[in-house]
Queue: 2 jobs
Job 1
Amino acid sequence: MKALVKEKAEPGLWLADVPEPVLGPGEVLIRVLRTGICGTDLHIRNFDAWARQTLRVPLVIGHEFCGEVVEVAPGVEDITPGDLVSGEGHLVCGKCRNCMAGRRHLCRDTVGLGVNRDGAFAEYLTLPASNVWVHRVPVELDVAAIFDPFGNAVHTALTFPMVGEDVLITGAGPIGLMAAAMATHVGARNVVVTDVSPERLELARKLGVALALNVAETPVSEGMRLLGMREGFDVGLEMSGNPRALREMIANMAHGGKIAMLGLPAEEFAVDFATIVTSMITVKGIYGREMYETWYAMSVLLEKGLDLSPVITDRFSYRDFDAAFDTAASGKTGKIILDWTA
Ligand SMILES: NC(=O)c1ccc[n+]([C@@H]2O[C@H](COP(=O)([O-])OP(=O)(O)OC[C@H]3O[C@@H](n4cnc5c(N)ncnc54)[C@H](O)[C@@H]3O)[C@@H](O)[C@H]2O)c1
Ligand SMILES: [Zn+2]
Ligand SMILES: [Zn+2]
């Protein structure tokens, strides 16, 4: 079968012929239909310091996908050939304290699909049945393909109540955009999205946010003034990984404000802890998705009309993966989809 492979320990990706995966005990064989390109995949293509440290080549990459079930191992229940599925890309150990207690998203020994084991950028993949999410609510294939990052957005956005609150989202990448769609959907008052990319801020405007602010030109405090806000943001969703964004967020939170932090900084950095203390701010780190409460929330949010279509901006055949990756790396677009059937 065709697969996108990190064949060599050097920058680049290769479209290669590899053996089809063999169905193991408790597993499901899936024919991949669509995949989404994640920042992680760009790091792998570039072979940056993180990728050099983490990857063992050769590796089939990719973790954002949807597909059709082809075969299930004996004993697997409730998943049937023909089902449309997405997959949870974090394979948990099942043995640590948190796994045993049912808090699988807090597993201390997670294996990443397309990072620590062969992934989804291929015509077929196998996954443990416990990592397969069956779409029982009808969903478009392109949206089903991005349930993994959508789950990052939903997990972060549902961490603190947002109804009627003023919400600051720093970073209008695909995940920040999905979180912005969520915040307006669930009834936040002012949703302010910041970025330094005019193109991405334009995408945020299409989602109907109160304000899409270019922080290279206008400080967040000025945005608050434009909206008539006086006391600061109640909820902050950090989705850029950029130190300046978190610092500016902390400086503009209401007393008692809550920050959920998804953005992954590349290195350590300093923040104003005195303000965190005296403004009594809560900061919570968010990683992955809750299994499977986040997945449930995603499906029912879509069922209730949450519209992610403005977030998906470009589509390519998997054969044109290099152009697709270049487009994703431009930092100007929303989510990029690869079609594995065309
Ligand atoms: N914790 C997790 O489980 C998890 C999972 C996926 C992604 N992530 C991280 O979440 C973040 C968002 O993911 P994404 O795919 O949307 O990333 P992305 O890199 O596409 O988007 C980040 C955006 O932040 C913008 N930005 C840069 N400086 C800024 C500033 N000072 N203020 C506001 N915005 C600024 C960039 O222009 C970019 O548009 C990334 O940091 C990613 O590494 C974390
Ligand atoms: Zn991802
Ligand atoms: Zn575990």
Note: The radius of gyration is 20 Å.
Job 2
Amino acid sequence: MKYSELHYERIDVDVSRKLMQGMVERLNSASTFDEHLKVIKNVDQFNRDYASYAAMASLNFSRDIHDEDAKAEKEYYDSIGPDMMECLEIYDKAINNSKYKVEISNKLGETFIKQVEMSLKTFDPKIKKMLKEETVLRNRYTKLTAGAQINYKGNKYNLAGLGPFHSSRERSVRRNSYHARFDWFSKNSAELDEIYDNIVKLRHRMATELGYKNFVQLGYMRMGRSDYGPEDVAKFRKQIVKNVVPVVKTLHAKKKVILGLDSIYFYDNINFKEGDPKPKGTPEHLVEQAQRMYRELSTETGEFFDLMVNEDLMDLVNRNGKRPGGFCTSFPKYKRPYIFSNFNSTDHDITVLTHEAGHAFQYYSARNQPLMSYCWPTMESAEIHSMSMEFFTWPWMDSFFKEDTERFKYKHVAGSLSFLPYGACVDHFQHWVYENPNVSPAERNEKWLQLEKVYLPTRDYADLSFPRSGGIWQGQSHIYQSPFYYIDYTLAQTCAFQFWKKSEQTPVEAWNDYLRLCKAGGSLPFTKLVELANLELPFNDNCLASVVKHVTNWLDGIDPQKL
Ligand SMILES: [Zn+2]
């Protein structure tokens, strides 16, 4: 069946509430563990229906934000989210109080019980109204940024559409297009500040209402983190400052030589004088190449990608009205993932076919896990699959980049390493924001600039006045949409670099470790998944040092001027 043929409907809150009350009665009166298990399966099926329809509604709107019907469906699902949490809360409570908790754990794994406990700690009917307000604010951010119409060289572009100009080989094009971008942000920064200010204060209120000091602990639990806390993450950020920031400084100095420039400014975010590597061929051609690649990589990936193509489970090319960005979503009822992106003729298009496809492949591999909540892991684990797939597909990069292949690889490795301090900066910023929920927008910008000095000391915005004033973080959607979801990329990158090293040294073993990790889905928490994949835990003191050593060895072996 193709995506367009999948059945969609609205789930009714009242019907769901009655259904869930019935489930709870069955649980409470059940006299055997088997009856308990049947209820758990029934609720899981209900969750699959609900999650699938909600995901479809959200996706359809992302595909065309001007489609009024799609908008109405998305708004419907947004509006019932907190009510549905309330419906499920009574079930979670019944599971949490079940006399068969030990048996449930033995049968389904500890993770399920942990998930139930965590969702009880992150929700209470008394914050329902605030959760609805949070959704409204989030949607305001999406609407504002997705609706950006930026005049550049006589044409109108959305933010994603400006991307190719930002990486033009002509310095003036890069500079001017960034000016156009930041002019838009400058004009809208008061509204962006207002949205953020409201959302931070709202999250703080929810946290205190639930009995927490501030939003930090609640934020961690909302990310499903049961096995590490802010102290572990703070230590990891320190590892980044110690081991990665100095290497990034070296790369920055190297870049001056490569580009033949005396100073490197923010808008010089290209890697080569001739411009960045570009994929060769039309989007259709690139997808054909990807299909061949996945068939050659392994039986499993071949079957997976054929399914994505045959069932129209990808919407890849940028067009007006499409929400910016790229993501992978899923429809658990149908056991299918879906990839959304905005191809814009940059090397990013190929990253979609490897990174987002890595997410989708993991979902596909874990689709038969017994519970819906076991199909996706928490985000820091999910990004391991996607970022590692970017490396496992290296041997096929020449079919996309031809003569630009080596350049792409250099950019990939140098870029992935340079990303770590940025990721840590975004994370550190968010911790500070939620520890200080009452500061002014100007103080937030000031803090951002201070943190840039620690994590991104070589950044120079030249005459771009908006980022100079400290507001650049407003373009980072995660900061608004998914608090504390960002360090995940750096933890996962640290693991993906390890897979890269292994895939070169012991390729068969590396792939088997990867496959095992994908199939495990979210049945285990992050630290356990890392162990299962035979990787070193990023929180360990020397983990990053040894990872960075491998990366710098590779980078040192390349003369970028010869690329
Ligand atoms: Zn990802």
Note: Residues 478 and 485 are 6 Å apart (CA to CA).
